[in-house]
Amino acid sequence: MWIYIIMAATFIFLGLAVHVFKWYFLIAGYNTMPKERKANVDTAGLGRAMGIYSYANGAVYLLGGILHSLGIEWSMAPAVIFTMVSSLVLVIRIQKYDRNIYNDRSRGWRRGRREGLVGIVITVLSLIFVLVLMVISMRPTRVGILDEGLKIYGMYGDTYTWEEIEEAKTLEELPTIKRRTNGASVGPHLKGNFTTEEMGPVRLHVKKGNLPYIYIKTDKRVIIFNLDDSQEALKVIEEIQAQIQ
Description:
Elements: H1 2-20, H2 35-38, H3 43-69, H4 76-93, H5 106-137, E1 143-145, E2 149-152, E3 158-161, E4 165-171, E5 177-186, E6 189-196, E7 200-207, E8 213-218, E9 222-225, H6 230-244
Parallel strand pairs: 7-9
Antiparallel strand pairs: 1-2, 2-3, 4-8, 5-6, 6-7, 8-9
Helix pairs in contact: 1-3, 3-4, 4-5
């Protein structure tokens, strides 16, 4: 819930700062321009566009927080996708406020257009990268029972030898998560390192709601994962327990 509130407050603050208070130094790119190039930028139009973008995203994250509080776990994914799409639209639209691009000299115009297009390409590639990470983090957890140990595939996956596994059991509920230290949290999908109230640091590979959760304790860390198929999960925990006895 707090992540939605923080994101909403951040976007709304940025919108007010740029649009209302005219803090244009917060705009990346504009703040590093030489003075003569800043003079050719329509700051009022740019600030208005940034404001609309920020208010819209703030409203989306606020709505996401409300949906999350009502138990709708998928509310983060649409919010992130909206931010990516609106960011792309913003980068394209704000080109018209930079008169350095549309000057009278053809050579300067072409150079300015190239600079603008490079910025757009970088933004698009960044958004695609984030989207790919989201998709990867939402893939079901896959595990393998190997001769040497348990292998968890995918992001934050690893191989845990039978010798280092000290305990293996099933859980009916997850420990209370305090914060994400290094990982991904997209709706019900949790992958990576988290800090919990009951167990301290844990590594999660779970989709919340899919029971049972499988708890593994090694000499280095605690790992909790689950599978889409509950019957397969029960077979996996039986094999793990047979190996470590």
